[in-house]
């Protein structure tokens, strides 16, 4: 298997966009009817199709359609779906044992994943890690750890932030619909501060940070703040990259005030932005870092990694969970990390940005509805406004996304105003496939705005 040749196969699948029925086809429609009858209406889905096989940069549905995957299951299958390193290690582990509960009898895989996290995350200080199942669980545990360590309660989060769907992480998430609507009351002692949003607020990073810090001092009091939790690039919020200097100023404030600075890298981590972690782009060293999504090639695993003195401040038995650091998920993580290192997926993410940004700039120039092209590496988004205004256009965004789906390209939307089209291709996506996806995206923009 060689990278980026036109006829490359991944796990037996030709890397091509191929539509043999309308989307959804008849078999997907039949399954959709069963789904509606069997599954809670509260569980949404971006596309009404059902997948039988996926590899590299394509997903193949029950009707035989091969769609280009520009979402990676929300930044999860960064190493490509059914990546060989992941599959081989998972199969071997499943054959050996599937579960013991690490809190009962232990296994090496958990140790190895934590060693890898301690090595790969920013900073060469002494670190410890703990493993969980989901991103939300990692964020919850980071807050637990910060509260024990600081003996303080307040948690600071930011506008447009997304941290999960559990009670505490709903409280930490900014956007009400669909994530929080009707699900309150929410956990207390969570304070939301203004974010640096360069294309909207026009502030420098230092100015935006000074504003947020002044509010923290007046409204909460630094001495009451256990943790500042922030995504280095907002994910669900629409890939908002804060102005340069914003994150370093928050880190400095945290260090000066005894606050635990937590980078929520659940979406940005593991080569997604062209570095192992997005914190590295501005050279910040978080006290704690939460990871999940891209960590294990599709198996559920998450982690909190951070300064040894903070991580070790928790009493024995205070952290854990039945499945946290499941051996199969650990095997998958070790396979993913091996693939990222062997194939230099950071370089691939940078290359994806180099291909995508100029083509999106051309679409912006041709259609006049794109107000911002942003993100880093293989985490790229466009913000869509009504032509000639600064009014977010969620309707146009959805129309273009649906048209992309109908033409065999899986794209996702995002943003507080629902007007962001975001792209999270697998980092192993062959270039010809990426170019094909961009051509489809371009056509849908042109048709929708014609
Ligand atoms: C997805 C996400 C979460 C929640 O992860 P789950 O695995 O869905 O619980 C938390 N933080 C960020 C930044 C995310 O993107």
Give a description of the structure.
The two termini are 42 Å apart. With 450 residues, the protein is an alpha/beta fold. The longest helix is centred in the C-terminal third of the chain and has 23 residues, at 345-367. The chain folds into two domains: 9-69 and 344-449, Aspartate Aminotransferase, domain 1 (Alpha-Beta Complex); 84-343, Aspartate Aminotransferase, domain 2, CATH 3.40.640.10. The protein has helices at 26-38, 72-75, 84-96, 108-120, 135-150, 167-172, 198-201, 205-219, 246-257, 308-311, 327-342, 345-367, 394-406, 431-449; strands at residues 9-10, 13-14, 51-55, 58-61, 66-69, 127-132, 154-158, 190-193, 225-230, 260-264, 288-291, 302-307, 370-376, 379-384, 409-410, 412-414, 420-423. Bound molecules: pyridoxal-5'-phosphate. The site of pyridoxal-5'-phosphate has 14 residues, from helix 5.
SSE-based structural type:
alpha/beta
**Could you say what the CATH architecture of the largest domain is?**
3-Layer(aba) Sandwich
Q: In what order do the strands lie side by side in the largest sheet?
A: 6-12-11-10-9-7-8
CATH superfamily of the largest domain: Type I PLP-dependent aspartate aminotransferase-like (Major domain)
Global morphology: globular
**N-to-C terminal Cα separation, in Å?**
42 Å
Provide the CATH topology of the largest domain: Aspartate Aminotransferase, domain 2
Helix tally?
A: 14
Characterize the largest beta sheet: strand count, sense, and whether it forms a barrel.
7 strands, mixed
How many E-type strands?
A: 17
- How many domains would you count in the coordinates? 2
CATH class label of the largest domain: Alpha Beta
Approximate helicity band: 25-40%
Task: Give me the Rg, rounded.
Answer: 21 Å
Low-confidence stretches: 1-5
Average pLDDT reading: 97
Quote the beta fraction: 15-25%
Hetero groups? pyridoxal-5'-phosphate
